[in-house]
Design a protein that fits this description.
The chain folds into two domains: 269 residues, 3-Layer(aba) Sandwich (Rossmann fold); 152 residues, no CATH class. It is 35% helix and 18% strand. The strands form four sheets. The chain has a nine-stranded mixed β-sheet with strand order 1-2-3-5-4-6-7-10-11, with helices on both faces. A two-stranded antiparallel sheet has the order 8-9. A two-stranded antiparallel sheet has the order 12-13. α13 crosses α14.
Length: 503
Amino acid sequence: MRRIITGLAALAAICAHAQEASISTAACEKLGASLALPGTTVASAQPVTDGRFTPPGGGRAVADLPEFCRVELTIAPTPDSDIKTEVWMPLAEWNGKFLTVGNGGWGGSIQYNALAAGLRRGYAVASTDTGHTAGDASFAIGHPEKLVDFGYRAVHETAVQGKATVAALYGAAPRYSYFNGCSGGGRQSFMEAQRYPTDFDAIIAGAPGYDRTGVAFQTIGMIQATHETPESFIEPDKYALIHRAAMDMCDARDGLEDGLISDPVGCDFDPGVLQCKGSDARACLTGPQVEAARRIYATVVDSRTGEVLTAGLEPGSEMHWEAVAGDTPHYMYNSLFQHVVFPDEDWDFREINVEKHLDAARAADGDLFAAVDANLEPFFSRGGRLLMYHGWADQNIPPLGSVSYFEKVVATLGKQRADEGLRLYMIPGMGHCGGGHGPNQFDMLEVLEQWREQGQAPGAVIAAQSESGRVTRTRPLCPYPQVARHDGQGSIDDAANFRCEAP
């Protein structure tokens, strides 16, 4: 009976809290003069009530918005810091929770679409430009504190000052605080869980680029492979050729021929099966092209020590190779060497070498980009939850990196403890943070909410695949190391006909 009474009292408090969270436009406007935050200037506090918002500088307008209070903050933890952060708070029907959204690449901008998505769900939501407005790492030259801001401090400051802003407007602190990021945002997720375990109650880390420096050698290595000689270059129209060969070999190994590779690690695909018997042709690969493709799949190792830096890409990723092995180096990793490691605007990607440059790259990193600590006990001990996901067909960040981190956490904390606070979903056919040729539409935030707030440990997560706005396939995403198995009955396009099983 005491439990029932306690539960009813908690529910009543939540309902009362939601009812009280109806805020006037005047209260929003007054916030600009009354809000006092350490090291922070309130640039603006204005209500937005017409259902639309046009980003500064004339970006595409965001529509279908509830009325909200938009607060612009400038945060300066050091004299050289200039962190711009926005906090959007519903004027009515606040869900009592706070959400911070992550940035891809080198950051440099407020994520307005992500702010809008969180706002529509009733969240008070925050985003930061990570302390600069550049599209690459050029901001870092001569500004070491800005590099620290980008590395981890901007998100932490946004969490702290953002929650204080929310409390000032509503008169109550958020009941739960979450972070949601993918790619560079996934790296931010790891930084928060590892460095600042009290900032958030639960965190989503999609395709986490948590070792940017290590992966840089793999990504630059791919374009080195396709540019070693003119004959090494793989024309984009041959990607489909390699992809079909990989699918032919790997697709059915899970017992179901469905256009997806559920466990690419278990398939030792060799592009040498496509080598031309005679002269170059559209239906085959030349010898140099075969060697280039093999390097794209290959693990990167420091020959001096035997240390594995990172795995390569997986079979099934071939249709995305143009972004990383086409005409130009990937902008993010190119900028790492160009603006941080050397720096030298005229550096030649062909000269990068693990044995010659790894130590210098790690020294330049200085743990600003690497979030590799597997001891998540400080985060888990306060109920923190970390939900990871990664597409098996990712071209930007080798997916086995997520598997490796997951296994390191298990080894560090033990399986039982890791199971309390960590989940990983490996997604067949999905590219970098989305897209690809498999089911790639899912709601991890709802899963995270149920896990942290209701204690419902995640199992299968239903993902959908759509064409022209119509759902064509659903499939369960299984918590690693489980994989989805068809039960032998019914359509292979219906998630109801699958179950998650150990591999």
